[in-house]
Design brief:
By secondary structure, this protein is an alpha/beta fold. The protein contains 18 helices and 14 strands. The longest helix is centred in the middle third of the chain and has 20 residues.
């Protein structure tokens, strides 16, 4: 058994320091402020914590009043995964749109503008960008969050994004190491597995992480995936071979290693969050992300106590916990000694990028009267969430007053097509879909609506994988608010 050399208070402070918990509400609860005073060094923000830039700035000031160098992290990828604009849709497109344009300066500029806005609100740590190579087009959780399926393209845009974000003084956290792109299982719901060879993994999955490390990324987030070619026994988040052997020793990474959310079923449903937390720190992780689902004081205390108990019973080396805590504190000190850069605002760069990412197929007459917009929508993954609106209806309504629309999901009674046609009446039909290739009901409904109304305009706002069909067929490569704006401009001929 390991002999404790540090005081119990030091051990408790170290255990708190490695946690990145969430909380409920748009102001910090008393319990969180108390734990910051006891050693908690970082917190994570989600959509439920954000009601606008002014409120967010006040919240981060409240947290910083308790600890000047508190690490305030957020899950803000832009595009489909947004917390800053959770109720309106993002002001920047996501990675697939940027990868489609393939202009590295544009990617840097978009990331820098996101970083400028985050820093202005007091947020200095962003769990982004996704560095996953979306090699499986049926991937249910990455998709448009990836720059694309070409490793070289993903690598260069990951590095550009890191450079842009960190130029604003915001820590980039590339994810999900060693790569979540070649999966058809959502790790929020189960434990995915990638069966590629070590050679393929090194050439494909690891290429963007190498580029990010070379580009100076300050943080890397682990993936809750099993990769037998690297470690057949445990998922990457819990694997010493992957976090320490591969990421630290082979790739030479020296920055902070953060876990993906520990309450995700891939970990919580297999190991439990307390045991998973101990195993992750032992494997080489430095910070434990928890709070997307579990965001109460009891969770923080349970994880703190599990780490303390593991040190005391010898299952977690005290030196490993102390090293992890010091890495977190060192990054916190970086935010205090590195002021946010005074970048000139470029709020229009997001719309510029979205416009450049649009691809239009087929000839059509622009809309000159108010259409009916039907959104065919399956359940969004947990990372995207259900709160954020999407589609071109709002942007069309500003240009063509009287535009209306509804969302439709899979229907067991087979009335979907008739319902849409009945609601549209004699108006032009605009049909918006996301990842139609992954949802047979959606593709079937689209084809039936096109057969009935050949002048239907189809807007694919996910990953395009099918032969263009529609008059026109518009591909936006993402469903951010600005992508809807760009699609509306095309539809009205602007």
């Amino acid at each position: 058994m390991t002999t404790l050399t540090s005081a119990p208070d030091t051990l408790t402070r170290d255990a708190l320091a490695v946690l990145q918990p969430g909380f409920a509400g748009t102001t910090a609860p008393d319990w969180l402020l108390r734990r910051i005073g006891e050693g908690l060094a970082s917190v994570g923000l989600f959509g439920r914590n954000v009601a606008g830039d002014g409120q967010l700035t006040a919240l981060t000031a409240q947290l910083r009043a308790e600890r000047e160098d508190i690490l305030v992290a957020i899950d803000e990828e832009g595009g489909d995964v947004t917390r800053l604009d959770v109720n309106t849709g993002s002001f920047i497109p996501g990675n697939l749109a940027l990868g489609t344009v393939d202009d590295l300066e544009l990617t840097r500029s978009v990331a820098a503008e996101l970083g400028r806005r985050l820093a202005a609100c007091g947020v200095r740590f962003n769990w982004a960008p996704s560095a996953d190579v979306n090699s499986d087009p049926d991937n249910p959780v990455i998709g448009v969050r990836s720059f694309g399926a070409d490793p070289a393209l993903v690598a260069r845009h990951t590095a550009a994004y890191v450079e842009g974000l960190q130029s604003a003084g915001v820590i980039a956290c590339v994810k999900h190491f060693p790569g979540h792109g070649d999966t058809n299982v959502d790790s929020h719901l189960a434990l995915p597995r990638i069966d590629a060879s070590a050679e393929v993994l090194r050439a494909r999955e690891l290429a963007p992480f190498r580029a990010a490390i070379a580009g100076g990324t300050l943080a890397v987030m682990s993936a809750h995936i099993v990769v037998p070619a690297l470690d057949a026994e445990v998922p990457a988040t819990l694997s010493r071979r992957i976090l320490t052997g591969l990421l630290r020793e082979e790739l030479g990474y020296e920055g902070l290693i953060v876990t993906d959310g520990m309450e995700m079923r891939a970990i919580a449903g297999t190991y439990g969050i307390e045991r998973g937390t101990v195993l992750a720190i032992a494997a080489g992780a430095d910070a434990i992300c928890v709070g997307g689902g579990l965001h109460d004081e009891g969770t923080v205390l349970a994880l703190r106590d599990a780490l303390v108990a593991a040190v005391r019973d010898g299952s977690l080396p005290e030196e490993r916990l102390a090293d992890a805590a010091e890495r977190v504190r060192a990054l916190a000190r970086w935010t205090r000694t590195t002021p946010a850069a005074p970048l000139a605002p470029r709020p229009a760069v997001g719309l510029e990028a979205a416009r450049r990412a649009v691809r239009v197929h087929g000839d059509f007459a622009p809309l000159d009267t108010a259409p009916y917009v039907a959104l065919l929508s399956d359940e969004a993954n947990i990372a995207v969430g259900t709160e954020t609106p999407w589609g071109p209806a709002e942007a069309l309504a500003r240009r063509l007053p009287g535009t209306t629309g509804d969302a439709y999901g899979p229907q067991a009674d087979g009335t979907l097509v008739a319902d849409v046609l009945g609601a549209a009446g004699d108006r032009r039909l605009v049909l918006a879909v996301r990842d139609a290739h992954r949802h047979p009901w959606m593709a079937a409904a689209r084809d039936a609506l096109l057969a009935a109304r050949p002048d239907t305009a189809v807007v694919e706002m996910g990953v395009p994988q099918e032969t263009p069909a529609g008059s026109p067929y518009i591909v936006t490569h993402g469903a951010a608010r600005v992508c809807g704006e760009a699609a509306a401009e095309v539809l009205v001929g602007a």
